[in-house]
Amino acid sequence: MDRPEDRAKDQPTDRTAESAADGGDGAGRGDGAAQRSRRRFLRDLSMVGAGGVVGAAAAATVDRTALADDDKFPANGPATHPDRHHPPKHGHVDVHWNVDTEKKLVALTFDDGPMPQWTPMVLDTLEKADVPATFFLVGRRVLDNARILEGRTARHEFGNHTWAHKNLATMGVDAAHDAIARAHDAIEKVTGREPTQLRPPYGHLGGTTLLAAADLGYDVALWSLQMVESEYVNNPPGLVTYIVDSVVPGTILLAHDTGAQDRLVALKGLPDMISGLRAKGYEFTTVSELVAENRK
Questions:
Q1: N or C: which end of the chain has fewer CB within 10 A?
Q2: What's the pTM?
Q3: Which long-range contacts (CB under 8 A, 24 or more apart) does 145-149 make?
Q4: What is the DSSP letter of 25?
């Protein structure tokens, strides 16, 4: 995501303070000297004031220029349709980090697959535990690894994680729309179901992300808790404890079924996390089913 640059601020010299330090109050001088000193004090004060006014006017000019030349800024994309004659097809997009509910429900989510590296292991674990999850799939990986999902789609939800996992927040409208639409078609072709939840890569939201989601009828699913595997590489049971203790009703939990090797800490700990959460009365659901609870 774009970050604002730090701007250096000029600090004007306090000339009135310098005058006072030099005896500007006229102490020890004759009346004439005192009057001249007061006149110099007032003159300097007026110059500082005038400088402040000029500085403010210059700042206002810079601000106006920035607004007028916003096409020069790094693109986050528009939040309104660039073609003013064609608004988005859908009137709103819901964005969920978690869901407000008193029911002990939690949604497991897995990003970036399917990949032969670990996706089959995750599917095996979930099948053995009779747990549904939401997989946010990368479109081109779906086509390359379709066999991984064959016969294993009934239990789970499959969301859209774009075609090639590029940052939607830096794309133009057409590119963002294409990245989501291509993945949509691939997921529907392989799983037989149309995805309705979009998770933008890196969780980055830009205007084009929301606009493309609205055009294509998606809601956006982020997360409220994630596996922090790198912090528990030398203490895998500690990650299990952390997750079980951190889940609250309505949590959307982020994991990955491919990627850096340390992510195996979370995936190997899944059976214990599932049993630990069930012992606390939690039930597992998909993101869409969790969101539906919030709409009842």
A1: C
A2: 0.74
A3: 145/113, 145/114, 145/115, 145/116, 145/119, 146/190, 148/113, 148/114, 148/115, 148/116, 148/119, 148/120, 148/123, 149/114, 149/190, 149/191
A4: T
Of the residues 112, 156, 256, 257, only one is catalytic, namely 256
Beta strands in 83-173 (DSSP E): 95-96, 105-111, 134-137, 157-160
156 catalytically annotated: no
pLDDT per residue as tens digits for the range 28-77 = 444 454 455 555 544 554 444 444 444 444 444 444 344 444 444 335 66
111 is catalytic: yes
- Which residue, among 152, 107, 157, 117, has the nearest Cα to 137 in the 3D structure? 157
Q: Which helix (H) or strand (E) holds 44?
A: helix 31-68
- Residues forming a β-bridge with 254: 109, 226
Residues 236, 269 contacting (CB under 8 angstroms): yes
Cβ contact 223:245 at 8 Å = no
- Residues 6+ positions from 187 with CB-CB distance below 8 Å: 137, 139, 142, 158, 160, 193, 194, 195
User: What's the confidence (pLDDT) of residue 53?
Assistant: 43
Percent with pLDDT over 90 in the chain: 64
CA dihedral for 194, 111, 134, 191, sign (positive or negative): positive
Among residues 96, 111, 156, 219, the one annotated as catalytic is: 111
